[in-house]
Amino acid sequence: MEQCLAVAIIHGMGSYDPDFADDIIAKLQKYFPEKVTRDQLDRAKLVIKPIYWAEIPHAKEEAVWQDVVASGEMNETDLRRFIFDLAGDTLAYQPSKGRRGLYLDVHKQITETFCELAEEAGEDVPLCIVAHSLGTVVAQNFLYDMQNDMQDTSQLIERGTPLERGETLALFCTYGSPLAIWRLRFGDEYKAIDFPGHALEQLYPNLQAKWYNLYDKDDVLGYPISNLTEHYAQLVKDGYLEDQPVSVGNIFTTWNPMSHLGYFNDDNEIDKLAGFLADIWKGAYG
């Protein structure tokens, strides 16, 4: 009998295609079998789905960019467009009073993907979220809204299964996360999510849930979070949260801020991620 993990991969800010996760998924399916025994491999299965939300803010960003281009000549247009997309995603996604439409549209992509995962992997299997950049903020906001029963987000759920509500969250991998910057938006009112998922201990008592926050020290958009608030510090003390400095990118990017784009293109990090997933599977089923 197959015993599954549900894995959701969320991209970050910037321009992405719907197939952004194809290479990551292929590598995880290659490396994961190397992390379990032959007997376990007969039972172990990863059900992996990408969460693609870039198209939601992109149309508005493209329209404004064309107005900018028509306004006058600029140097470094490729770099300017890169920064424009990064800032545009961040500003467009931020919710405010009376302006939560795009925020909820992005969260709708999460609920639809979680519903697919529940149907294919199982309604209460361990949930693993792998997120990059602004995607880490998107994931945390969605989970926070679920945990605090924010009505407009809760209504997006289709079937109300434990997995769809994030209640089986067992692994949270945040790569190049700007959560430290996001905290500034809320000041002392900022609260982290409860981790792990509320139903995990009862369903999988032998599973050690983990939140790995991975950041390249040259990445100016990725930050450690262990002491961001007392809640984060407590997660560290409880053995759930761990900051991990890494080095990603190629010879041209590993030493500079462009390393922000290297996390999901680094074979060593994907191999490490496969190990994280194997540890979660063994804790649940092994």
Q: How would you summarize what this structure contains?
A:
The protein has a single domain (3-285), classed as Rossmann fold (3-Layer(aba) Sandwich), CATH 3.40.50. The chain is built from 11 helices and 6 strands.
Helix content: 40-55%
Mean pLDDT level: 87
Give the radius of gyration.
19 Å
Any low-confidence stretches, pLDDT <50, length ≥5?
250-257
**Name of the level-1 CATH class:** Alpha Beta
CATH architecture: 3-Layer(aba) Sandwich
Sheet/helix structural class:
alpha/beta
Amino-to-carboxy terminus distance: 13 Å
H/E topology pattern: EHHEHHHEHHEHHEHEH
Biggest sheet record: 6 strands, parallel
Count of helix runs: 11
The counted number of beta strands is 6
Shape: globular
Give the tally of structural domains.
1
In the sheet with the most strands, the strands line up as 2-1-3-4-5-6
Describe the structure in your own words.
The protein is built from eleven helices and six strands. By secondary structure, it is of the alpha/beta class. It has one domain: Rossmann fold (3-Layer(aba) Sandwich). Helix 10 links the parallel strand 5 (210-216) and strand 6 (241-246). It is globular. The protein starts with a strand and ends with a helix.
Label this structure with key terms.
single chain, alpha/beta, Rossmann fold
